[in-house]
Write a structure and sequence with these properties.
By secondary structure, this protein is an alpha+beta fold. The protein has 2 helices and 2 strands, in the order αββα. A two-stranded antiparallel ribbon has the order 1-2. The chain starts with a helix and ends with a helix.
Length: 56
């Protein structure tokens, strides 16, 4: 997912490991963008990549 964010020019990408701390996810990824439109596009791209990977 970070590669998708990186190609979308996301800023301040941070990956937080959650293994053993949450049953919902293994990682939490936080990133920022220059505009709300850019952030919305990044979210759509990440959602698409997750669906391709079989994550719901």
């Amino acid at each position: 997912m970070t590669s998708s964010l990186d190609s979308d020019k996301a800023e301040n990408i941070l990956t937080i490991p959650l293994q053993g701390k949450s049953s919902m996810a293994d990682y939490m990824v936080i990133a920022s963008g220059a505009s709300s439109r850019q952030v919305a596009a990044m979210a759509e791209h990440v959602e698409f990549k997750l669906k391709q990977a079989g994550v719901s």
